[in-house]
Design goal:
Chain lengths: 203, 203
DNA sequence: TCGTATATTGACTATATAGTCGAAATGACT
DNA sequence: AGTCATTTCGACTATATAGTCAATATACGA
């Protein structure tokens, strides 16, 4: 009698579920782009997402879990943005330069993403830590090659990240001049005391 | 019959009032050093200050007003830190260098202050704007003297502020090496492409 | 059309936080 | 000791937010 295909059922559920979950995730993303996670409320989220309160709890255990999911999505966007460079470029300074530029260009083209990055930088998550780890690896390699005058990796990382974040804030507050990413990169390389990478694209 | 000196009364009141107000202000300062203003609660503040709830509202209309008062106090500490340099040094790059170094040294010696500065940088207040205005004045002067290779004042300001804030975060997270302020300053001057100021203290 | 697994809803209870206010305490002065 | 302007207190009411759950809707397969 009526053998029901449980697997199929679950799949259907998963599809519908994914759609609503994405709505909530998007609403959470927008809200987290404009306020710190401590300022989020479940009522605010469900209103922004256009779903009922119970639905939120059906998909997420708590606001923290939602924030973590948004963080994971942001982490994915980092990988998507940076992985190509990591594979193609063997020169650590070139990798770093490419990544830095991609970041600022993305910030210009996608302000919500930029706001989210800036907000996330307040309380470092697993994903922003990953970025820093990659950066430090590149910097260490460059230092080992004797190509940076800054010898302290942590300081070097703070210089790169500090300029990147603050320039992002500048892009968000004032309107972005398109020349900014290049100029900012030049400044970063000067700050690190970087010897020219092979491409020689700087002044 | 008992002519009461109202002015004296008011003065007495003001003294007692000032003491309790300072307690609340200090509690607010500590809390704002560790969380964004949106995450503050009146209950949390009065508990930290060791006063009753009504007392808070006797001194402040709202949490925003308390946050503004903390911001003003922070602004005063900026002036105290920076005014001497502004009066004594006529060279804009020397002024900027002095201010930058004072900031980082203060961050090392007073972590609560540093946390407060970092937190405040999220949502620029009247007082952090003042800092940026001073900085931009110095940078403009230096650019006009043809002593910086960075020509865009906003970008230059972002570079200085970005490095300063991120190095502060680094100081707070890791333990501060005392050589950091000097090294960071060197990096900033290189980033700006600054010609040597007269003292020539850099590498 | 009906049955069923899954997803969605919104009303409901808990609790936390905001903001008020009359009563009590304080302390300089007589 | 008594007076009184001022400050402090904490109980109280409002409201907002968290978190639950029984009822309902959905949509596919039989």
């Amino acid at each position: 009698m009526a053998k029901v295909d449980m697997a199929r059922r679950a799949e259907i559920g998963r599809e519908k579920r994914a759609k609503t979950r994405a709505q909530i995730l998007d609403a959470g993303t927008m809200l987290l782009a404009e306020r710190p996670p401590e300022a989020l409320t479940v009522d605010g989220i469900v209103e922004a997402a256009g779903v009922a309160k119970g639905t939120f709890y059906y998909h997420f255990q708590s606001i923290e879990e939602l924030a973590a999911a948004v963080g994971a999505k942001l982490g994915d966007s980092f990988d998507e943005l940076l992985t190509p460079a990591r594979l193609e470029l063997s020169d650590p300074i070139a990798r770093l330069s490419f990544a830095f530029t991609r970041f600022l260009e993305k910030a210009i083209s996608d302000p919500i993403w930029a706001r989210l990055v800036v907000q996330s930088s307040r309380a470092p998550t697993e994903f922003t830590r990953g970025i820093r780890a990659h950066l430090k690896a590149d910097l260490t390699e460059a230092i080992d090659q004797g190509r940076l005058s800054v010898q302290d990796v942590e300081l070097a990382a703070d210089i790169v990240i500090g300029i990147c974040l603050q320039v992002m804030r500048g892009i968000l507050e004032r309107r972005a001049a398109s020349g900014v990413p290049g100029q900012a990169l030049d400044a970063v390389l000067r700050a690190l005391g970087a010897s020219q990478p092979c491409d020689g694209s700087r002044a």
